[in-house]
Amino acid sequence: MPSDQESLPAVGVPDASEAETSAPEGLTFAYVAGVTPGKWIRRWEERMPDVPLHSFMSDDGAQLEVLRDGSADLSFVRLPVDRDGLHVIPLYEEQPVVVAPKGHEISVFEEVALEDLAEENFLDVAAMGGPEMAMQVVASGAGLVILPMSVARHFNVKDTVARRLTGAEGTQIALAWPSDSTSEVIEEFIGIVRGRTAQSSRQPSAQQEKPKKAPKPDRRGTGAKKPAVAQRYAPNPDKGRGKGSRKKGKR
To answer: Can you say whether the dihedral through the CA atoms of 203, 208, 211, 212 is positive or negative?
Structure first.
C-alpha cells in the first residue's frame, strides 16, 4: 500500500499541455487609428464562433513591430511600410483633410485646395509625437496638419476644425502579416476582410466536408400501377371551335 505521503495519480484530469492543445487556436490582430474593424469582428463571430478573436490599436510607429515581436498575427497598417518578410494586401484609400484651429478661415469652406494654403505653416505630425498631440498643437494656433479624415474624426480634438483637402497625396490602409506565418484561421480572416462570402470555395471554413443528408424514402410504393381507365365518352367534335361554330338546326 502506498504511504500517506505518496499521492495517487489523478484520474480524469487532463494534463495542462493536453488542455492547451485541445483549446481552439485563437487569432490576434492590431490596427492603426482610423481603422474601424467592427464589421470584420462581427462576421468572424458569425462564422467562427469557436475561435477567439482579439484586437488592439497600435501606434503608426509600431504598426509593424507588433508583427515582429509576435504581439499580433496580422496588422492593419497605413502605407507605405517596409514589406520585407511580409505579405501586404492594400485595402482602401483614405481621404486627406487639413486640420486648423477653430475660427480659421478654412472653416467657411467644405473643401480646400492644397495650393490655396501655400502660405500656411504645416506641422510635422511625427515630430509632434503622433496625430493626437499634433492636433493639440494645432488647437493652440501654432500651425496646420494634414491627416486622414478617419484619424481626425477618431481623436476629435477640441478647438480644431477639419476640411476635405484636394491636391494632396492620400494614404492607404493595408492588411499585413509575416510571410512565414500561414494557417487556416489566418486565411479565414483574410477572406473575411476581402469580402468573401461564407460559401466561397476559397474560405477554409467552406471547404470542410459537410455531412450528407440521408436520401428521402420512396413514397411511391412497390405495388403495381393502376390500369388506365378507358374513356367512356367520345370527345366532343365541337369543343374548341369557338362560339357560333356549331350549326343550329330545327328539332
So the answer is: positive
Dist. CA 45–CA 55, nearest whole Å? 13
- All cell numbers assigned to 184: 487556416
Q: What is the pTM of this model?
A: 0.69
In angstroms, what CA-CA distances link 37 with 21, 55, 79, 161?
Answer: 29, 9, 17, 25
* C-alpha of 15 from chain center: 37
Cβ 108 vs Cβ 145: under 8 Å? no
98 in Cβ contact with 106 (< 8 Å): yes
For 77-178, where are the alpha helices, taking DSSP H only?
131-139, 149-155
Q: Which three cell numbers stand for residue 211?
A: 455531412
Asked if residues 51 and 28 have their Cβ atoms less than 8 Å apart, the reply is no
Q: How far apart are CA 165 and CA 149, in angstroms?
A: 9
Contacts of 213 (CB under 8 A, 6+ apart): none
Dihedral angle sign, alpha carbons of residues 160, 162, 167, 172: positive
- Give the pLDDT of the chain (251 residues) as one tens digit per residue: 544 444 444 444 445 444 444 445 699 999 999 999 999 999 999 999 999 999 999 988 889 999 999 999 999 999 999 999 999 999 999 999 999 999 999 999 999 999 999 999 999 999 999 999 999 999 999 999 999 999 999 999 999 999 999 999 989 999 999 999 888 999 999 999 998 876 654 455 555 544 555 566 656 655 555 655 555 555 565 655 555 555 555 54
- Rounded distance between C-alpha atoms, residue 120 and residue 97, angstroms: 14
Centroid of chain to Cα 11 = 44
